[in-house]
Design goal:
Elements: H1 16-30, H2 43-46, E1 54-58, E2 64-68, H3 80-92, H4 94-101, H5 114-118, H6 129-136, H7 144-159, H8 167-182
Antiparallel strand pairs: 1-2
Helix pairs in contact: 3-4, 3-7
Length: 222
């Protein structure tokens, strides 16, 4: 990067032509970087073209500057989590969302069910999978279709264009998650996860196991 292209933020956005130059420089600098590997969490992700690379910068007014393969569609996966949190915060207030979902770091993998097993109140945070599911469960609507459409529209507003469901990724994720669930150890822990929004009763009483773990405050048997 040349000295001319160096930019130090002062709290103000640089002129549009300077943003254009910086985006182009960043694209040329990193387009040949082949470090890392494709995610293999779901089979469909492992099949994505590894050489696809694009950059797009947007300001708060909606103006964008792009370079490379910025028009190629890709699945946003967990990138959706903070935006779903923001949507539900607008519907229910941030305080109510965090009261329901939690806001503490788990210290576990993003998809670890043990995070809710070990939490005394069953709460995690909206940025891990169990907490993200609980956050999404707060979406208003009388049917799954209504809830999904509200989420899709909300995420589309953030993106500035209509987003859609990738059927191939959805099917791949559903199949992989089903296998993962079958491999989970069948212990007697007491799950205090959210039963759905709005909660019909206090969270500590939502144990889904008949024989609760002895550590559970409402255990019925050891």
């Amino acid at each position: 990067m040349t000295a001319e292209a160096t930019y130090v933020s002062t709290g103000q956005l640089p002129p549009a032509e300077r943003v254009r130059r910086l985006v182009d420089i960043a694209y040329e600098r990193f387009r040949g970087n082949a470090d890392g590997a494709l995610s293999d969490v779901y089979p469909s992700l492992a099949a994505v073209a590894p050489d696809t690379f694009g950059i797009c910068v947007a300001n708060t007014s909606g103006a964008t500057v792009a370079a490379g393969d910025s028009e190629v569609e890709f699945t946003i996966m967990s990138v959706a989590k903070p935006f779903v949190l923001a949507l539900m915060g607008g519907v229910h207030t941030p305080e109510r969302v965090l009261e329901f979902v939690g806001g503490n770091a788990t210290g576990r993998r993003f998809n670890a069910v043990s995070a809710i097993e070990d939490a005394p109140d069953g709460r995690t945070n909206p940025m891990v999978n169990p907490g993200a599911i609980a956050t999404a469960s707060m979406t208003p609507g009388s049917t799954t279709e209504e809830k999904w459409e509200l989420l899709r529209q909300g995420l589309s507003r953030f993106a500035g264009r209509e987003l859609s469901l990738d059927d191939e990724v959805f099917a791949s994720a559903s199949a992989a998650n089903a296998v993962s669930q079958r491999r989970q150890p069948r212990d007697r822990r007491c799950y205090t996860v959210a039963a759905g929004w709005p909660p019909t009763r206090a969270r500590p009483s939502t144990c889904t196991r008949v024989k609760a773990h002895s550590r559970c405050p409402h255990a019925t048997s050891p």
